[in-house]
Amino acid sequence: MSYLSIKGLSGKATIGGTVKIVGAKNAALKAIAASILFRSPLLLDNVPDIEDVSRMLEIIRTMGGSVSVASHKATIDASTLSSTTLTPEISKRLRSSIVLTGPMLARHGLVRFPHPGGCVIGERPIDLFVEGFIKMGAKVKKVGKFYHVAAPKGGLRGGELFFRTQSVTGTETFMMAAVLSRGVTTIKNAAMEPEIVWLADLLNASGAKIAGAGTPTVTITGVQLLDAKKKVFTVIPDRIEAGSFLILGALAAKKLTVTNVIPEHLESLTELLTYTGTKISTTKNSITVSANKKKGGLCAVNIRTHEYPGFPTDLQAPMVVYLTQAEGESLMFETIFEGRLNFTESLNRMGANISMMDPHRVIIRGSTTIKGSHLESPDLRAGLAFVIAAIIAKGESKIYNVYNIDRGYERIEERLRSIGVCIERKE
Ligand code: EPZ
């Protein structure tokens, strides 16, 4: 069982340097799914070299598509897909596999899939997907653990969808399903994440007709199969990876710069870091932080996670670690997932003082001294939060379930070592 062994800095701010941010996991995964809408191969650049991307490409390959990947570039030809069943052993562990259902239904009129798995952060229902497909004229049948969805004769019909809760993959799935559907589809209360805007731009540059991506109302007019005409699409930088490194820098760096970022995508985080006492400077494509090590330098704050442009739930766990070092009482209100605060028990074992008020709310009392411990990463974002806690801790830590971290962070130990972190991957 491999683990990450980390020697803590005992609260000192001695790391520093520059980290180049890689392409966004939650953009690349959806572009791979979008390849099913194309009559010709889709060319991507700046694709992160992470487990979830490998899994998604594996699904396309096992279903009959052809995929080639080399040094962050991918060529995906899904025009030869021969199966309409999402590879079960992969899709039941990968939540993002759900987005394949939209393009599959739109192009092939049929898709079978198990309830998609993923992190342990909450129940992860797919009722919005089932309801949406029915509204577009499809028939949905549950056969054992599988869903069988069949489009009507003549293909999916455009429809009026209102998401009673904003859903990132829901918005992406139906935006893609509507691209090849008959007529016009409107998605209301759509999610507005930057990854959705980037996906819409990629589709529109290949012949789709999508308006309003990045606003609460997205309108899609159905067209024929897309063709990128050999254009190469560069995946936008991963704002969650960038935010995770910035939080680490705000706790442990003399000076840390993240490059190849879009600062506007990180405003909710940089606002909060500045407000609580961290020094930050920004250029067009980089952000630099320095740890504020004055006694009482960081002050407590109340945060609620929220759909974009609010504070991202994917940065909640690293931010909780940051708040253990802020003077006073902070509240973290995780509004999106009901199981995403359980990792705080492990932080308490390291010396944090976090009380769970209910499954959505914790109070963090700081600042406390964090001591090294043995930890199991429950999901990729809490896994990275444990890495940050281990780096600021007194003494050594071992973090198991490294696969969960590799799902979303490329070459994590190598890139941390490059900024002075004492970390090793051990078998
Ligand atoms: C996406 O998950 C991301 N995953 C998540 O990132 C991210 O945390 C989440 O959006 C919120 O930003 C990918 O893009 C692959 P949702 P998604 O549908 O789309 C409820 C990471 O670490 N809901 O926006 O699955 C749901 O329970 C991952 O990279 C329904 O009720 O999240 C949640 O409470 C973790 N019914 C809320 O909506 C549905 O049919 C928002 O979930 C679908 C969702």
Which characteristics define this entry?
UDP-n-acetylglucosamine1-carboxyvinyl-transferase, Chain, 23 strands, 4-stranded mixed beta sheet, binds ligand EPZ, alpha+beta, 14 helices, 30% helix, 427 residues
The gist of it:
This protein has 427 residues and is of the alpha+beta class. Helices cover 30% and strands 25% of the residues. The chain has 2 domains: 210 residues, UDP-n-acetylglucosamine1-carboxyvinyl-transferase, Chain (Alpha-beta prism); 210 residues, UDP-n-acetylglucosamine1-carboxyvinyl-transferase, Chain (Alpha-beta prism), CATH 3.65.10.10.
Report the top-level CATH class of the largest domain.
Alpha Beta
Largest sheet: 4 strands, mixed
The stretches of 5 or more residues where confidence is low (pLDDT under 50) are none
CATH homologous group name of the largest domain: Enolpyruvate transferase domain
Give the CATH architecture of the largest domain: Alpha-beta prism
- Report the end-to-end length measured between terminal Cα atoms: 6 Å
Helix percentage range? 25-40%
Ligand identities: ligand EPZ
Count of DSSP helices? Answer: 14
Query: Number of domains in the coordinates?
Result: 2
Whole-number average pLDDT? Answer: 97
Q: Work out the strand percent.
A: 25-35%
For the secondary structure, the number of strands is 23
CATH fold name of the largest domain: UDP-n-acetylglucosamine1-carboxyvinyl-transferase, Chain
Which structural class fits the helix and strand makeup? alpha+beta
Strand order of the largest sheet: 21-22-1-23
Q: What's the Cα radius of gyration?
A: 22 Å
Shape: elongated
